[in-house]
Amino acid sequence: MSTAALSGSALPGAKTPLGRFRTGTVGGLARAISSNRKATAGLVILVVFCFLAAFPGVVAHDNPHAEIFAPALGPSAAHLLGTDAYGQDLFAQLIYSTRESLLIALVAGLLATVLSVIVGVTAAYIGGLVDNVLSLVTDIFLVIPAFPLIVVIAAYSKNGGDPILIAVLVVTGWSYGARQLRVQALSIRDRDFLVAARLRGERRWRVIVSEMLPTMTSLIVAIFLGTTLYAIVAAAGLQFVGLGNPDTLSWGTMLYWAQNNEALQAGSPLWAIMPGVCIAMLGAAFALLNYAFDEVSNPALRPVRRRRK
User: For residue 258, which of 99, 195, 209, 263 is within the disulfide window of CB 3.0 to 4.6 Å?
Assistant: First the structure.
């Protein structure tokens, strides 16, 4: 994740499109996305996956769990991606797996971002012993290798379902964002508008929520996008190695069963390739949105375009 969102353009009075978040208008966000090609492309891909997750039956008409077809069929008009070794339609599995894969990524990304905001902003605003303790905890999670820790935690809670998987992703994915938010909060903690709010006698939580957080919106959005991207890849990796629930429908579990049945050697390459393609495309959507928000919030990152005569 880029640290471009740490720039001063996200502070009050900024004239960038994301600076208009300070007023709470949705129009600023719409203009920021529509004016950036990367954001537009990422949003289009994300909307397509959200549609597939919400209405899978509109696109895939077969039951993804039904073992009623001949096994290991090749692609055809009846089965666009063929069938697996159990006689299940691969296209239906791929479409219905979108819901769980997207849900895990969004929930884990949102919860990790909320935890990052609570820890990072609280540490910077309160300071003193609270800052030292929270910073120490953040540093510990930063230096611990993430994926081995994920594997160890998930192995002890094997087949624990989506809540356990999401909890593992949140525990291992919040620290980097908390460190960035702490740095940003320290840079604005003593600015005039926050000092004025404290002198007016406003409560601490109200100063943080109403005055401080709106100035950090671009960074919070960037952290959410980056954390969600991390959750997509990490969740698929855990499910692929068998540390998720193999009975659920997701792209990671499709890869798990494809590997167990040696799909590439058995003449069913699409069983393994298409879930990987979907994971890459969904990750690309969040990456494009993340890069776009960096460019919008930091003018130094925007591409230079020649004026048309």
Answer: 263
